[in-house]
Amino acid sequence: MTIPVIATGMSGLVGSRVRELLQDKFYFEDLSLTTGIDITDADAVAKAFDLSDAKIVLHMAAKTDVDACEDDKYLGKEGGAWLVNVQGTKNIVSAAAKTGKKVIYISTDFVFDGTKEIYNEKDKPNPVSWYGYTKFLGEDEVSSSGEIFNIIRISYPYRSKFEEKMDFVHRILDNMKKGKRIYGLTDHIFTPTFVDDIAVCLELFLNRDLSGIYHVVGSQALSTIDALKIIKEVYNLSAEIIPVERSEFFKQRAFRPFKLALNNDKIQKLGLTMLPFDRGILKVKKQDSP
Ligand SMILES: NC(=O)c1ccc[n+]([C@@H]2O[C@H](COP(=O)([O-])OP(=O)(O)OC[C@H]3O[C@@H](n4cnc5c(N)ncnc54)[C@H](OP(=O)(O)O)[C@@H]3O)[C@@H](O)[C@H]2O)c1
Prior knowledge:
Pathway: Carbohydrate biosynthesis; dTDP-L-rhamnose biosynthesis
Number of strands: 12
GO molecular function: dTDP-4-dehydrorhamnose reductase activity
Order of helices and strands: EHEHEHHEHEEHEEEHEEHEHHH
Bound molecules: NADP nicotinamide-adenine-dinucleotide phosphate
Strand order of the largest sheet: 2-1-3-4-5-10
Number of domains: 1
Organism: Candidatus Gottesmanbacteria bacterium RIFCSPHIGHO2_01_FULL_40_15
Protein name: dTDP-4-dehydrorhamnose reductase
EC number: 1.1.1.133
């Protein structure tokens, strides 16, 4: 029998793959604009929760475009980033508390400022972008609810090709294949995460009574330029990769944390394995080939 789960964000880059992989085990009651529920509408959310028998909520919906979120900053609480990421999460948390449902909230490495060598779950967030700030306030809504919760921080998710929204791997592949200039940041460290591994972890979180914060991230932190070299080699492409520093590359764009190595020891202790980028990318290539 499939277990009912209220889910948001199921049409997105991460959610659509999670649904594909877990739909035999869980029945996802999808709350999205497409299914007629705007999470910024507290009454609509409360009604959907009242009607549901699910005991658990997987909350992935967010405004995720970092630059578009930055543009919302001057609008403050009236802007989309705040409305979806903070108010939307508050609506979910409050409806969940009233109906006795546990919330699993998907968050981001962007809650950190990127000044530390490596981050674990005990490190204090200090977001430097409006996106990161609103996601952090979303975390705060969840953790201060007084209810049992999970905050799952993911980082640079990549997956099999998804036509609706490209992950960073397919954006780079697309540019390499079109012969565009490829710039590789030499001083940006990140921790890419294979979405199929996120799905395996979520299955465990949906099935077990765990609580607290977890970093569900890949097992390899690397520079962007090194990731580009791996992609180029695995896909056997001949693109030229031009080294560039972050101060030059992100000149006109939202400020980003630049050293985002996250440690995943806590989930490894649960027996979960997260692939390093150089192995995850091989799986993606295999999944992409017909
Ligand atoms: N992508 C990344 O690089 C990344 C990195 C770290 C963490 N994360 C986190 O992972 C989660 C999933 O990210 P993603 O990249 O998969 O997202 P995405 O592709 O941008 O999709 C966003 C999802 O949010 C839903 N949504 C947006 N506004 C909504 C609203 N007002 N009411 C209801 N649903 C709404 C959308 O559904 P409809 O449009 O169908 O309504 C869609 O399913 C997010 O919480 C994000 O913060 C993402």
